[in-house]
Amino acid sequence: MFSRSAWARILPFLVYIFFIIAVDVLTRLGFDAQALRWMYALKIGAVLATLAWFWRDYTELHAWRLGALASAVAVVTGVVVLVLWVSLNADWMVIGAPEGFNPTTGGQIDWLMVAVRIAGAALVVPVMEELFWRSFLMRWIDSDHFESLDPAQISLKSFVIGVVLFGFEHNLWLAGIVAGAAYSLLYMKHRSLWSSILAHAVTNGLLGLWIVRTGNWTYW
Q1: What is the residue range of 87's domain?
Q2: What is this structure's pTM?
């Protein structure tokens, strides 16, 4: 059904989702939530291993084709998305009531756990998600031969579908839609996946620092 190039972008995402489901199931079965926090490290390790296995298929990432101005725009976009992410939190903008990821034990922060969480969110998740949502899905909706489709030629239909689905992947669905739109526009404008990855990484990295600083663990 899918080509190797498609699976190379789908499987890392499925591995990530598998661990989310696994933690939820184990929690419902009564496993200690505190102990399950380290499943995040396993999840990131598994995703990273999958990305490494398929690395030769990610030809668009083999070179940094992003100028200084485009890089600056991506960084600023990432900061703006962060501000909106922590602001678009009214009750109607949130799905469910997530407990988040709390790295404290006995009131003390486990800094190794924090480091793993921020590193995973800023360095691994953006690559995995952008490969799936932008590089694959948005182009595949327009063409089975998605790799040959110039990002600048992505249709409005694909843009809307991709952005909405990306938004509802997150409990902060409206913030997710805004973020998805911003990252998608960068990808289409700069025609480089590194642009959306950079913006996504800035958002996730700064969000992690903000969470630790404020103790708003539900944002994780």
Answers
A1: 4-219
A2: 0.95
